[in-house]
Write a structure and sequence with these properties.
single chain, alpha+beta, 8-stranded mixed sheet, two-stranded antiparallel ribbon, 18% helix, 22% strand
């Protein structure tokens, strides 16, 4: 049959069967589970369309090298939701211009084990890791073990209003978190000092628990949402990587979940602007 396309009369956005989310994670202490750790490969830190440079020291003015970006995801199983997926907060979401929302990165020296303790403890990567260790009492030294166990925590959530949608008149509310907001799921009575342990329900959604750059698996790749796959393929070290070779060896792996490419499991993308890498402490990489 003939297919006619009037380019002057196309919808601004394609139609989707996905049910829009009308709820959000409310501010305050909320029960959560850490459900996913994904290594996205190395990316340049971008700020206002340009690659970040060192501000001081012997490397002042020099372009910062690409660093490993990792995505952490927390599900809030007790929060009511109306869409197709439970509410989550996720770090390190790549935008079209190459910048990342709420980026968590791994300086090369940290990955190599040569970054000093004082510097290491100031990285968001280590802050999140030590926060999970303290909140759970577990001494796992990597995020993958925490995510595979879907450990229960309590998180202090903050809210921020987003930009008003001119078409619908709706002003969205976004949920945000910081590493120091992660604590054990318990309350201590201020007077009696009695401890009230809180039960965190199992996670509702289905997630890729861990996707590790050097040891990818077809099963883990199939579980990744499309925005993670896109970020991985745009990493500067993707070509020739284990994932690249895995997909070239079996292209059918990448065909899974194509009908769901418009579905986003993270309606609570942080509303904060991307961190300004120009103003961050220069940590050796």
């Amino acid at each position: 049959m003939a297919v006619n396309v009037d380019v002057n009369n196309l919808p601004e956005k394609g139609k989707s069967d996905r049910k829009p989310e009308t709820k959000f994670i409310e501010a305050g202490n909320q029960l959560a589970r850490f459900v996913s750790y994904v290594e996205l490969g190395k990316h340049y830190q971008i700020f206002k369309g340009a690659r970040a440079v060192y501000e001081n020291g012997k490397n002042a003015g020099r372009e910062k090298p690409p660093v490993l970006h990792v995505a952490l995801q927390f599900e809030f199983p007790t929060c009511e939701y109306t869409g197709d997926y439970p509410l989550t907060i996720q770090t390190t979401r790549r935008m079209d211009n190459g910048e990342f929302f709420d980026a968590v990165v791994v300086p090369q020296a940290l990955a190599d084990g040569t970054l000093g303790k004082s510097y290491s403890l100031r990285t968001r990567f280590v802050k999140y890791l030590t926060a999970l260790q303290a909140a759970t009492g577990l001494n796992y030294t990597n995020f993958a073990d925490f995510a595979k166990a879907q450990v229960p925590v309590m998180i202090n959530v903050t809210n921020k209003l987003g930009k008003m949608n001119e078409e619908t008149g709706v002003q969205p509310t976004f949920a945000n978190m910081k590493p120091d907001g992660i604590v054990a799921p318990r309350f201590v009575h201020p007077v009696t000092k009695e401890v009230d342990e809180l039960e965190v329900p199992p996670a509702i959604g289905s997630y890729c628990a861990a996707f590790e750059w050097d040891t990818p698996t077809a099963e883990a790749w199939k579980q990744l949402p499309p925005w993670h796959k896109e970020a991985i393929k745009k990493a500067v070290d993707f070509e020739g990587s284990p994932t690249d070779l895995m997909l070239k060896a079996d292209p059918t792996i990448d065909e899974v979940n194509k009908p769901d490419e418009d579905q986003d499991q993270t309606p609570n993308t942080p509303a904060e602007p991307p961190a300004d890498p120009q103003k961050q402490e220069d940590i050796p990489v």
